[in-house]
Amino acid sequence: MLVPDTGEVRVCRLRMAPVEVFGFLEGLGSLRAVYEAGPTGFGLARAAQRAGIEVIVAAPSKTPRAPGDRVKSDRKDAELLARLLLAGQLKAVWLPPDWLEAVRHLARVREAVRRDLGRARQRFAHPATELALVDLLAAVDGLLARREALDERLSRLAQDPRLWPTVARLRAFRGIDTLTALALHLELGGNWQRFRSPVRLGSWLGLTPSRAQSGESDTQGQITKTGSAIARRLLVEAAWHYLRRPAIGATLANRQLGQPDHVLQIAWRAQHRLHRTHQRLRERNKPGNVATIAVARELAGFLWAAATAP
Predict the structure, then answer these.
(1) Average pLDDT of the chain?
(2) pLDDT band of 124, cuts 50, 70, 90
(3) Which of 32, 119, 191, 236 has the fewest beta carbons under 10 Å from its own?
C-alpha cells in the first residue's frame, strides 16, 4: 500500500478469501487498488466493483519496467504497480462482462482443440509402429468429435441476442462465417467501440510494423504481435480469401440476408480494396505472407467500421 501524502509504502501479505480482503480494504478508507492481468482472471475486479471498491486490472505488456531490472518478486511488483497507479501510468485492460468471458473460455477451448488436432495429424509421416499409428488415428477421431461438439455449442451461443447483431454483421464479409465472427467478437471483449479508430484496433491486434526511430534513422521491422493471437490468426486466415476477384456467391449472399445496406456496402468495398492490395503488393514482389498481413490489417479496419456503424 502506498500513502500518497507521505510516499510511505506499507506492506502486508493477505491470506484470506476475496470477501475478507474487501473487508480489510474497506477498513482503510478511500483508496484505489490494482493488480496485473493473469491467471487470476477478472473475478476479483468484478467482486470489488460490486463492493464499491475501485480496482483496475493492469495490462502487463503495457507496464513500464526498467530494462536493467532483473530482480522480480511479489513485493517489488506490488510496489511498482502502486507507484505507477499513483502516477497515472498504468494501462487498464478491458473488463468484459462475466457472461461474455464464459463464452470466450469455450471459444478458446475450441482453439486449443484445433491446435491439438493439427499436431496429431502431422505425426503420420513416419509412424514407429502400427500400434502408434492406430493410437494417433484414435486421437484424431477423438479431437474431431470434440471439435464438432464445440462447434455446435458455439454456433448456438452465437445466436444469443447480446452477440448476434454484431456476429451477423461480421458474417457479411468474405472469409468470415459464424465461428470466426464469434471468436473475433469475443476476443475484442464484445466491444468494438472501445477502439476509437481502426488504426488503434490494428495496433492492439499486433498487425502494425514495429519501429525503431533515432535521429535520422527510422526503421520498420516485423509486426508487433501484441494483443490477441487468436484474433490475429483468424484475420490472417480470412485475408487469404481476398486473393480472388470480388464476387458474391450463394453462400455469402445467404449470410448477408437481412443486413443493412450500409453494412453490405462496407463489405463490398472491402472485397475490392483488399483484392487490389493483394495484387499491388504482389506486383511489387512482396512475399505472400507480407501482403496477407497488410490485407489482414485493412480487413480489421473494415470489420471495425461495420461493427460500429449505426
Answers:
(1) 90
(2) low
(3) 119
Q: Which residue has the cell 462496407?
A: 266
Question: What SS3 class is residue 272?
Answer: helix
* Rg from Cα positions in the chain: 23
**Helical spans, DSSP H, in the chain:** 18-26, 43-50, 74-87, 98-121, 130-157, 164-170, 178-187, 198-204, 229-239, 250-256, 261-283, 288-308
Phi/psi at 117 (5° precision): -65, -40
309/79: higher pLDDT? 309
Contact 143, 115 (CB under 8 A): no
How many other C-beta atoms lie within 10 A of the C-beta of residue 166? 22
**pLDDT tens digit string along 87-111?**
889 989 989 999 999 999 999 999 9
Dihedral class, residue 29 (left if φ above 0, else alpha if ψ from -120 to 50, else beta)? left
- Measured over the CA atoms of residue 25, residue 28, residue 31 and residue 33, the dihedral's sign is negative
Give, to the nearest 10 degrees, the angle between helix 261-283 and helix 288-308. Answer: 160
Amino acid at 297: R
214 forms beta bridges with 217
Tell me which amino acid residue 49 is.
Q
d(CA 56, CA 42): 10
What are the C-alpha distances in Å from 232 to residues 9, 184, 296?
A: 41, 9, 8
What is the number of other CB atoms lying within 10 angstroms of the CB of residue 244? 13
Question: Is the pTM here over 0.70, yes or no?
Answer: yes
Q: Are strands 217-223 and 209-214 parallel, antiparallel or unpaired?
A: antiparallel
Q: How many CB atoms sit inside 10 A of residue 177's CB? A: 16
